[in-house]
Amino acid sequence: MNDLQFSIVPTRPKDSHIIDQRFCLSDAIIQLAQEHIDSGIEEKIHSCLDKWNRGDIGSPISDLRVIVEPIRMTPPSFRRLQLMNSFLRVFSRPQIITKYLEALVIASQDNRSGDSELINRLKDDTLHSMYGWCGNCQIFYTSSAPLPYYGIKSKKLQRQMGYPVGVWGINIHVWQPNSSAIPFKVKGNLPSNIITEPPHSHPFDFVSIVLKGRVHQSTYYPCKNEDSASSSISTYKGFGFEHVDGVWPPHTNKNKCYLKTLEHRVLIEEGGAYFMPLEVVHDVQVEKNVASKTPAISLFFASEYYSPAHVYTTKEMIDFHNRNPFLKYEGSKLSSSQWEKKLIYISEYLLNTRETLNLNPIVKHRKSYSFLLNAQS
């Protein structure tokens, strides 16, 4: 496959499978809530839980790979979406995911663990706080075994991502801003206490579920001119965005566009799951005053990569990127004790044994850069 052409609208490569070109976030939430949970996946996850409860917790990542790898080998389809949804809805149950996090912590302290190298890769993450959120952490990833349906051979995409593009991953996202993060200002129709991401697409299809609290999301359609972007409810009416390839500099493609709001501030509450294809432009919005003490938490299950993310942001953010082309490499990994403490605190918060959660004293991230916006009228 040739390298993807850069247009203002995210598109799926011609030789990849298309699940459905029609998408509505509100409908996706309802659809996944009504889907039947696959009994085979549920049984396998509970078998893992029984194993961990017996104290056999030396290889939690490998245990989950046995369940996830067959899903990963399923070509993109409605069936695969059902399997991903089933896995996420069962795995996200408080007693299961917190036991898994406990197993990760204990296995990380045991050099005899069969997953020592796999867990060290999780701990080596240097981007955990660089986006401006202090609670992002990858907790699982698959093997990089070739996918029978995957036809992407773009060396450019491989270089831009920095790791095998066929690997799936699961992340916990604590929607709590770094105390040092300074959002970029943007003209928009959002409450003043809202912190949001720049509208963006993802390089992959994913399924996500809110484990705690609530978030709002909006979806958009990129347009070349302001008139085409007009709608009855417009989040960013009249604002011209800088459209670039990828979240991190350097950017090799850039143009200007406007965003037509398709869905404005869709509420996703605790237990709400949704699917999002890579063609969709969206953002996540949280209340800053709530996020500082009782942040929302979501679980994020991502599939294989197909294209760089499309990002729609401010000139000020892109100017900062241009001045700091190696921004992605300025982060630092947490110490083992910080990493373990973060997972323990998240577990206690999910189990309601901890009423509030503030990860800033643990992460101690001091950089002011953030992939965040604060809308002002």
Largest sheet geometry: 6 strands, antiparallel
Return the string of H and E elements: HHHHHHEHEEEEEEEEEHEEHHHE
SS strand fraction: 15-25%
| Structural domains: how many | 1
Mean pLDDT: 92
Q: Strand tally, please? A: 13
Structural class designation: alpha+beta
Spatial strand arrangement across the major sheet: 4-10-6-8-7-12
Q: What is the CATH topology?
A: Jelly Rolls
Q: Give the count of helical stretches.
A: 11
Q: How would you portray this structure in words?
A:
Helix 3 packs antiparallel against helix 4 (78-91). The protein is 30% helix and 23% strand. It has helices spanning 25-34, 39-53, 60-72, 78-91, 94-108, 116-123, 155-161, 288-291, 315-323, 336-350, 360-363; strands spanning 133-141, 169-177, 184-187, 194-196, 206-212, 214-223, 241-245, 254-269, 273-276, 281-287, 297-302, 310-313, 373-376. It has one domain (29-143, 158-376): Jelly Rolls. It is an alpha+beta fold and 377 residues long. It contains eleven helices and 13 strands. The strands form three sheets. Strands 4-10-6-8-7-12 form a six-stranded antiparallel sheet. A five-stranded antiparallel sheet has the order 1-2-11-5-9. Strands 3-13 form a two-stranded parallel ribbon.
